[in-house]
């Protein structure tokens, strides 16, 4: 019998516990806060009851799923774990302390995993007795719905640990993509130019509705501004700032004042009732929709090209991650194949020439776009 331990029963941890329990695994789960522990099973039931009412899930299946989850009051009660996944607050000291506690109780073959979005897995492994069994399992929100999991290896992670985590997570129905321990991993990093280049266009005087309409015409389900409005401009700004800092201020992650100003204005998107576009919707595509899409997609492909050059991932892995993680209609390397390398490189050169002072390097082509 395989046992999965989940630590942290907030939005992500509860969803991750559901994912493995739904696949038939025994789940041990805990949280530092008693109320989070006491309410966890009822919160899951409340989340799942609409599925039962819609006849998408038999009540017996819901009860069986819940019966496979045992809430325990401390990490010391998780000795049986084959795989322990933490989804506690995004603070490296908290996560390190937790893994030190876990190491002392789990068996020698157990794998430890972090669901961090933005911290270095290698840094988290420092000081552990067995850093080779720590890896990242980056689920997306909501975990039961999103198919993608980024499997993050740091330089010391063992192939055994990676294989074990992959098998268990694939058995739980997820598509697991290998991912380097680089800031933003694959999805959060390659998503930046979708927003960033749209913000550059906005600052040049284009309207948010025109830009979104252009991307809808190119096959995207949501435009960049509708997506910022959905998640929140404050969340988008925090993610951009985090990546900008982690990548040493590289201008590809330049923080546009249009985004900062939006956050300052308090119009954060759906959650405040008004955003860049929300509650409006984009109108018809502008006459130059194809040029707008080319510009944004050239930057998506270029970002993916730089990530690929850093190692630890593949073209197919990156394409799959962006299609599953962001609902993109095509991945960056499919974009590259569709336009051709020369067209994308020419576009980047054009953008470098018109870039504001200090930002030309933002458009430097990745090795894959350079002349063969
Ligand atoms: N929310 C997202 O969209 C998302 C997506 C992917 C990854 N993540 C990552 O998942 C992790 C959790 O995010 P979340 O949104 O679920 O947060 P959350 O605030 O909803 O939940 C965190 C839970 O961890 C508990 N906790 C804090 N310290 C603890 C400790 N030392 N031991 C046990 N429990 C502890 C808290 O009581 C809380 O219930 C973070 O690392 C975050 O970066 C979040």
Automatic annotation (TrEMBL):
Sequence ranges assigned to domain 3-hydroxyacyl-CoA dehydrogenase NAD binding in this UniProt record: 3-180
Keywords per UniProt: Oxidoreductase
GO biological process: fatty acid beta-oxidation
Superkingdom per UniProt: Bacteria
Pfam families from the UniProt entry: 3HCDH, 3HCDH_N
Ranges in a coiled coil: none
SUPFAM superfamilies the UniProt entry points to: 6-phosphogluconate dehydrogenase C-terminal domain-like, NAD(P)-binding Rossmann-fold domains
InterPro entries cross-referenced by the UniProt entry: 3-OHacyl-CoA_DH_CS, 3-OHacyl-CoA_DH_NAD-bd, 3HC_DH_C, 6-PGluconate_DH-like_C_sf, 6PGD_dom2, NAD(P)-bd_dom_sf
GO molecular-function terms, A-Z: 3-hydroxybutyryl-CoA dehydrogenase activity; NAD+ binding
Signal peptide as annotated in the record: none
Annotated 3-hydroxyacyl-CoA dehydrogenase C-terminal domain residues: 184-277, 294-370
Stated family: Belongs to the 3-hydroxyacyl-CoA dehydrogenase family.
Protein name listed in UniProt: 3-hydroxybutyryl-CoA dehydrogenase
Organism in which the protein naturally occurs: Paracoccus caeni
Lineage: Bacteria, Pseudomonadati, Pseudomonadota, Alphaproteobacteria, Rhodobacterales
């Amino acid at each position: 019998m395989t046992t999965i331990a989940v630590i942290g029963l907030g939005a992500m941890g509860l969803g991750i516990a559901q994912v493995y329990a739904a696949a038939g695994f025994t789940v041990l789960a805990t949280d530092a806060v008693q109320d989070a522990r006491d309410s966890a099973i009822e919160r899951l039931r409340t989340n799942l009851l609409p599925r039962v009412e819609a006849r998408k899930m038999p009540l017996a299946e819901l009860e069986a799923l819940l019966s496979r989850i045992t809430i325990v009051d401390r990490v010391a009660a998780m000795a049986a774990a084959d795989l322990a996944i933490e989804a506690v607050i995004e603070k490296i000291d908290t996560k390190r302390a937790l893994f030190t506690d876990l190491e002392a109780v789990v068996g020698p073959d157990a794998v430890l995993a972090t669901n961090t979005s933005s911290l270095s897995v290698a840094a988290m492994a420092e000081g552990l007795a067995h850093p080779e069994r720590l890896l990242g399992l980056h689920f997306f929100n909501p975990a039961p719905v999103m198919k993608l999991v980024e499997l993050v290896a740091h330089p010391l992670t063992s192939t055994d640990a990676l294989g074990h985590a992959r098998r268990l997570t694939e058995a739980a129905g997820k598509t697991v993509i290998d991912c380097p321990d680089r800031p933003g991993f694959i999805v959060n990093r390659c998503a930046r130019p979708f927003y960033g280049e749209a913000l550059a266009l906005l600052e040049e005087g284009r309207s948010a509705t025109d830009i979104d309409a252009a991307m809808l015409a190119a096959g995207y389900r949501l435009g960049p501004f509708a997506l910022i409005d959905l998640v929140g401009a404050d969340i988008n700004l925090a993610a951009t700032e985090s990546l900008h800092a982690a990548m040493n201020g590289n201008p590809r992650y330049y923080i546009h004042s249009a985004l900062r100003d939006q956050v300052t204005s308090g119009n954060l998107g759906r959650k405040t009732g008004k955003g860049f576009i929300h509650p409006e919707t984009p109108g018809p595509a502008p006459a130059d929709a194809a040029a707008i899409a080319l510009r944004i997609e050239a930057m998506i492909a270029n970002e993916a090209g730089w990530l690929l050059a850093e190692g630890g991932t593949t073209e197919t892995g990156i394409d799959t991650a962006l299609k599953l993680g962001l609902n993109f209609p095509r991945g960056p390397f499919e974009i590259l194949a569709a336009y051709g390398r020369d067209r994308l490189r020419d576009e980047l050169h054009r953008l470098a020439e018109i870039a504001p002072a200090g930002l030309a390097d933002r458009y430097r082509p990745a090795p894959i776009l350079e002349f063969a």
